[in-house]
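Q: Given only this backbone (287 positions), what sequence would you predict?
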C-alpha cells in the first residue's frame, strides 16, 4: 500500500508491506537515493513483519524544497513521526543506514515511546569528534573551489556544477564498495541522477553549520539518552562512515556491535545476511 502524508506543506510518500502485528520502519538515507534501496530488505522481512518505507523530503516521489533549513535533522525526525502517524504505527523498530542512522538515534532519544528498537547500518554518527573523516572534511569545504574533480574533491558544490553525473557515479561506487555489482551500481546511479545538485547542496548545508567537536558532544548526549535495545552494523571497508565511528557508537550506547565484510551499504550488497541480522534482532526485541 502506498500513501502520502503532508507536513508543513511538504508531501512525504510512504509504502507499507506486510500485515504482521510488529512494524519495522526502514528509514531513508541521504537524498541521493530513495526508498527503493530497501527493496531486498522489504522482500525478506515483509513475510514476518509489517514494513514501512518512505522517500525522505528531497528524494524519490516526495517534495524537494530548496531551503537548507528544510533539511535540518530535526525536520527529518518530525517527518518520521508524521509517517508513523499516517500508517497507524504506534511503536516500531527503526532501521537506518547512513543519514537514516542519525535520524533513528534522534528519534529514539527524543520519542522513546515510539521506538521499540534501533538497528543502525553504517550510521552517520560520530561521537568521537577527534579525527575528521574524508566525508566531514568534504562537507566543511563544500563551498570552496578546490580546483579538482577527483576523489573526495568531487563532494563539492563547484564540482557538482561541472560534472554532477561524475560525482553520482563516484559516490555510488564508493558507497557500495568492492561488492557492488554492475546492477546495483546502475540502480544507484539512476536514483542519484533523478535528483539535482541544488537539492543535494541544500541537504549538505543543513548539516555543516556546527564544528566537529560540538557535533560529537551533542551526539554523545543523544545516544546516552537512548534506552531501547540497539544493534550497530558496519562494513569493514566502509569508506563513507569509518568503522571506528560505529565501534565507538556501540560502546557509548551499550549496543551490540556486528562488523561484516563490505562497504557502506551492506543491506544492498549482502541483503540476505543483513536481513537475517535485522530479523533476529527484532525477534529479541519483541520476545
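A: Predicted residues:
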Amino acid at each position: 500500500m502506498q500513501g502520502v502524508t503532508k507536513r508543513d506543506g511538504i508531501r512525504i510518500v510512504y509504502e507499507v508491506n506486510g500485515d504482521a502485528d510488529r512494524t519495522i520502519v526502514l528509514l531513508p538515507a541521504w537524498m541521493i537515493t530513495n526508498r527503493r534501496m530497501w527493496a531486498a530488505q522489504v522482500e525478506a522481512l515483509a513475510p514476518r513483519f509489517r514494513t514501512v518505507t518512505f522517500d525522505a523530503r528531497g528524494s524519490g516521489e516526495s517534495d524537494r524544497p530548496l531551503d537548507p533549513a528544510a533539511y535540518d535533522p530535526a525536520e527529518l525526525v518530525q517527518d518520521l513521526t508524521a509517517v508513523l502517524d499516517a500508517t497507524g504505527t504506534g511503536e516500531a523498530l527503526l532501521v537506518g543506514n547512513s543519514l537514516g542512522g542519525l535520524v533513528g538515534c534522534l528519534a529514539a532519544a527524543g520519542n522513546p515511546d515510539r521506538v521499540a528498537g534501533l538497528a543502525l547500518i553504517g550510521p552517520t554518527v560520530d561521537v568521537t569528534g577527534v579525527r575528521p573523516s574524508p566525508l566531514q572534511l568534504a562537507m566543511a569545504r563544500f563551498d570552496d573551489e578546490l580546483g579538482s574533480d577527483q576523489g573526495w574533491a568531487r563532494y563539492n558544490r563547484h564540482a557538482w556544477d561541472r560534472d554532477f553525473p561524475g560525482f553520482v557515479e563516484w559516490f555510488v561506487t564508493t558507497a557500495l564498495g568492492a561488492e557492488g555489482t554492475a546492477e546495483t551500481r546502475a540502480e544507484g546511479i539512476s536514483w542519484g541522477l533523478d535528483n539535482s545538485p541544488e537539492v543535494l547542496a541544500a541537504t549538505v548545508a543543513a548539516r555543516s553549520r556546527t564544528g566537529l567537536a560540538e557535533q560529537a558532544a551533542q551526539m554523545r548526549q543523544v545516544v546516552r539518552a537512548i534506552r531501547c535495545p540497539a544493534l550497530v552494523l558496519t562494513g569493514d571497508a566502509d569508506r563513507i562512515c569509518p568503522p571506528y565511528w560505529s565501534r565507538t557508537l556501540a560502546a557509548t550506547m551499550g549496543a551490540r556491535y556486528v562488523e561484516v565484510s563490505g562497504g557502506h551499504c551492506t543491506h544492498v550488497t549482502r541483503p540476505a545476511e543483513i536481513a537475517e541480522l535485522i530479523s533476529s534482532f527484532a525477534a529479541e526485541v519483541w520476545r
